[in-house]
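A note from the maintainers: we've had questions about how concatenated examples are separated. There is no special marker in the raw files; a new sequence line simply starts the next protein. For clarity in this README we add a label.
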Amino acid sequence: LFNFTSKILVKIMRELAVAIQNANENVSVMETINSIQKANFKNVFVQWYDEDWEYTQKQQVEKCKELGFNIIFAHLGYQNINSIWEEGIEGDKLVERYKKDIKDCKENGIDMVVMHLTSKKQAPMYGDIGLNRIKQITEYAKKLNVKVAFENTKIKGYLEYVLGNIKDENVGTCFDSGHYHVHFDDEFDFEFFKDRIFAIHLHDNDKSGDLHLLPFDGTLNWEYVMKKLKECNYDGPITLELCYRYDYLNISLDEFYKIGYERGEKLG
């Protein structure tokens, strides 16, 4: 009798996800949602910006649920976010606003939110004032069993400061490839964020701006980025944050998301 050990190589394709994008040009967000479904996406994230849109964020969530999408997280708004680092009532108001947003998301079945720590190219220096407010937000989220993923935006240091001082298991980061490329000049301490990358925003640019192009339509080194994400033990969906504008308007919305799905598969 002989004992044989068979080794079977299995190719596992990552789940794909895409943003419900309210900034798509010349189309409604409901048209966007329908095109995303036609492209065969099963996972999405929503923009919870508290904006005066034609279709409210809750209406968008209801439509996503109606179509059977899995909503992996909500991207919260960042209006006036720089005030969180300054003394004054504006920063205090942000704490209450984000607590409300997190509560609303939880009630809508969304268990993770993505937040910015700054906006624009300049912000007040990080320090205890902002950190204490952020702790109030993340501790409230923890009570509701909601994860908070802070995004790398335009200014270095803030993300490291917050995650270096908040070690709770529900607090991590959302890696944005476009910001990494255009704002951080491809510099990011992946090792520092190992095991704490909860979410990703994948899109491309040519370093002329935050263009939200389809992957491989810009100059980002995708092989390197995907390798580093794997080394960081990121195990979530391949999540695209695309925008239908610029030269993409020369193709249909359906074709745009069909190509997006194919590019996502290539990354996965």
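[label: protein 2]
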Amino acid sequence: MRLILVALTSSFFAGSAAAAQASEPPMVTLTLKGHRFTPESVEVPAGQRIRIDLINQDAATEEFDSEDLHMEKDVTPNGKVSFVVGPLKQGTYSFIGELHADTASGTITAVAAP
């Protein structure tokens, strides 16, 4: 009986972990260095929420700002911040580093699945 309970519990947790992973949004990592985003442009699947991990390798605070994505997030010097946007319709969305807009800019393009 105990063996059956252990097997059922293991199956439940394995199924829960798989379901959680299946619902995780696709992830994009953006890095700030020299007041520039790398990569400057990325493609993501349309119709889905997207998780953005923003890593700031500069010694200055920056503010990720996108009117297109309706998002503003501060990232501290040598810090990291994560946030979710979307779901995104097909199209191109621009973003900037508001405190260094002359050099820090980029785009996210949501594309339909083939």
